[in-house]
């Protein structure tokens, strides 16, 4: 099985649990994910399978979109509903006008301090492991970018909003920081990922359906060529196919049709076989294509 499988993850299992289960039921040894979802979170979890696991870095760095619920009144030890409440509950619950005003400071690019219970590393060790051992953790802020942030609903002590942000952004941290900005404390009550790069939750198969299908999940795979359709593409002729599978550069006469324009120099280029399958990803340099990731067999 070679391609991308979009799973609609339920609340409860970790991303690793989903990967392990799909690996087992699909009878495919090589399975990985392209961006962790917390156990509490639901929604889009893209899995790369077979040779497509080599393409994981080209999916994991993409923007993600979430629908989140924040509950005001107190912080928790994990910045979400699974943690222990910290401090005394606040009786001051902000109205929608105050929430809208506070959210403006979290749009655009800024530095965000990750949750202490996270996979961020401190001196080579994961932060959540240190927290479990009651060792103090001081995480450094990291640059993040929020390209879209809008309130969907305010109902009592809960606000629901949609956010699109760069890879590495923690919605739990946003919930914590929003509560602090409003002076009432807050934590993430629910989270659902709806988009990851070009993938949408509407394309996903429910986890329980994937388990029922077993090896039949192959019918739901997105091909590597289609999964990277945002990259420009060329089609190799027979000579080009042979060169690409050996990792050798391709000149214009190794391609069927027009050569890649100079204007896309620096971008990854898909080298396709005549049947449309992905042979390799390549860099465009000096008038030639230089394969960097090869999927097709020699």
Please give a quick description of this structure.
The protein is of the alpha+beta class and 298 residues long.
N- and C-termini, Cα separation = 18 Å
The SSE string, one letter per element, is EHEEHEEEHEEEHEEHEEEHHEHEEE
- What share of residues are in beta strands? 25-35%
Count of helix runs: 8
Round the mean pLDDT to the nearest integer and report it. Answer: 89
Described by the principal axes of the CA atoms, the overall outline is elongated
Helix and strand layout, with pairings?
Layout: E1 3-9, H1 15-26, E2 31-33, E3 42-49, H2 57-60, E4 64-72, E5 75-76, E6 85-86, H3 96-103, E7 108-112, E8 121-122, E9 125-126, H4 127-132, E10 142-155, E11 158-165, H5 171-181, E12 186-196, E13 199-200, E14 205-206, H6 207-213, H7 224-227, E15 233-235, H8 238-245, E16 268-272, E17 278-285, E18 288-294
Parallel strand pairs: 1-14, 3-12, 15-16
Antiparallel strand pairs: 1-3, 2-3, 4-11, 4-12, 5-6, 7-10, 8-9, 10-11, 12-13, 16-17, 17-18
Helix pairs in contact: 1-6
Can you put this structure into words, describing what you see?
This protein is 20% helix and 34% strand. By secondary structure, it is α+β, with helices and mostly antiparallel strands. The strands form 4 sheets. Strands 1, 2, 3, 4, 7, 10, 11, 12, 13 and 14 form a 10-stranded mixed β-sheet that branches. The chain has a 4-stranded mixed β-sheet with strand order 15-16-17-18. A two-stranded antiparallel sheet has the order 5-6. Strand 8 (121-122) and strand 9 form a beta hairpin. The longest helix has 12 residues, at 15-26. The relative contact order is 0.18. The model is unreliable at 120-133 (pLDDT under 50).
């Amino acid at each position: 099985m070679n391609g991308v499988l979009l799973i609609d993850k339920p609340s409860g299992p970790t991303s690793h649990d989903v990967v392990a289960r799909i690996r087992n039921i699909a009878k495919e040894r090589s399975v990985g994910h392209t961006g962790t979802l917390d156990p509490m979170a639901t929604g889009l979890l893209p899995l790369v399978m077979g040779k497509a696991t080599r393409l994981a870095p080209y999916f994991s760095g993409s923007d993600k979109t979430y629908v989140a619920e924040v509950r005001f009144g107190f912080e928790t030890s994990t910045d979400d509903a699974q943690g222990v409440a910290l401090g005394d509950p606040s009786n001051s619950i902000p109205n929608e006008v105050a929430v809208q005003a506070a959210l403006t400071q979290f749009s655009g690019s800024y530095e965000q301090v990750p949750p202490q219970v996270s996979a961020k590393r401190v001196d080579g060790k994961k932060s959540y492991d240190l927290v479990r051992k009651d060792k103090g953790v001081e995480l450094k802020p990291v640059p993040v970018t929020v390209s879209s942030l809008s309130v969907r609903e305010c109902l009592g002590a809960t606000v629901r909003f949609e956010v699109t942000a760069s890879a590495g952004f923690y919605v739990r941290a946003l919930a914590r920081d929003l509560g602090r900005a409003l002076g009432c404390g807050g934590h993430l009550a629910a989270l659902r990922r709806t988009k990851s790069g070009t993938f949408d939750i509407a394309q996903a198969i429910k986890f329980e359906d994937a388990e029922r299908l077993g090896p039949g999940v192959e019918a739901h795979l997105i091909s590597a060529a289609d999964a990277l359709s945002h990259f420009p593409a060329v089609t190799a002729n027979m000579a080009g196919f042979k060169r690409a599978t050996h990792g050798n550069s391709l000149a214009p006469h190794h391609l069927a049709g027009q050569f890649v324009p100079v204007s896309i120099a620096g971008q990854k280029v898909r080298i396709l076989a005549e049947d449309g399958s992905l042979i390799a990803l390549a860099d465009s340099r000096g008038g030639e294509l230089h394969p960097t990731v090869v999927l097709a067999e020699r």
